[in-house]
Amino acid sequence: MSTTDALAAGRRARFRRSVVSFCAASATTVVLAAAVGFTGVLGSGGSYRPTGTEPPSGSTADPTATTPPGAVRCTPASCPHLGAPDLTQEEWDARRNRAREMLDDLLAALPAGYTVVRDDPLNPLDPMVSSSGIYQAYFTVRQGKQTGLVMVEVHTPQSPIGNRWQGDGCDLALEIWPYPRGTCQLVTVGQAKVGVAQARWSNEDPKRFAQWAGYRHPDGVLVKVAQISRPDRYWKAPPELKKLPFTAQQLADLAVSDRFHVE
User: Which helix (H) or strand (E) holds 94?
Assistant: First the structure.
């Protein structure tokens, strides 16, 4: 199971309760507009904007993305494959509140000189959580006309994905994002040694640059903090950030920080 699949499963349960979801007309493929995992946000690939979510007047968000042909609005009755919730409402609420705290903390950590794009329907300020113990928050940032993305992802010891990634330091950092293969440096935060890796896609034009830190706490909670020079969820690519918001030391500090240590 990929991070995308796990987060999508969590969102499907939430969408079932609120009766808001998208599914393919074939009734075999679920289309989730916002359920994007670590590789989905930062790796190669495209996305779309659901009908009716055009950006507000004056927004700089890309206006060209459209709903894929065949995508239809459906309810749990017409899309029974959405599945049922596997956590109580109270448990879901607690996890959603924790994910919201993570988003708020990441927003507060953004250095001066960068603007959060709050009206971007392709990357909404909507943190995600799964029943298997995965939390994710990300948002678009801008400096002038240059646009990038910042995100944090947390895996509790119950996460089937986080448990697959072994090692620590650079071994861990390079394993949690194996493609494109990056280079890595060890950064010291107190008594911890944090792997901070970076890579640039060579098969894209314009190319994108990413940097990320990975750290596993002694209790098994794994934290990844990443920044990317250009989001891939735009069908028409904006100019990429020439200077990423965080330094390698700041990424490492965030990865070790208690603010993202989910208990």
Answer: helix 89-109
